[in-house]
Write a structure and sequence with these properties.
about 80 residues; mainly alpha; about 60% helix
Length: about 80
C-alpha cells in the first residue's frame, strides 16, 4: 500500500497530534481520514454546483423576482 512521509515543524506536529487526540484517533488514522474527507468534500461541492446549475433555469422561472447577488446594484456586496 502506498504511503507518505510528510515533514512538519515541531509546532505543526504538536497541533496535529492534539487534533488527532481530540478525535480519539492515532496520528496515522487522523491524517488518513483528513485527506479522504477533503477529497469527498471537493467531490460533493463539484456535484452540488453541477446540480444547482442544472436547476438554475427552473429556479429563475419559479422565482423571477430573485436577482443573484452578483447582478444586484452594487454587486455581491449588496447581498
Amino acid at each position: 500500500m502506498p504511503s507518505l512521509n510528510v515533514p512538519f515543524t515541531e509546532e505543526e506536529l504538536e497541533g496535529v497530534r492534539a487534533a488527532a487526540a481530540a478525535e480519539g484517533k492515532s496520528l496515522k488514522q487522523y491524517l488518513h481520514d483528513l485527506g479522504v474527507r477533503e477529497m469527498q468534500r471537493k467531490q460533493f461541492i463539484t456535484g452540488a454546483s453541477a446540480w444547482a446549475e442544472r436547476l438554475r433555469d427552473e429556479f429563475d422561472d419559479a422565482f423571477p423576482d430573485e436577482v443573484p447577488p452578483a447582478e444586484r446594484p452594487g454587486g455581491a456586496a449588496a447581498a
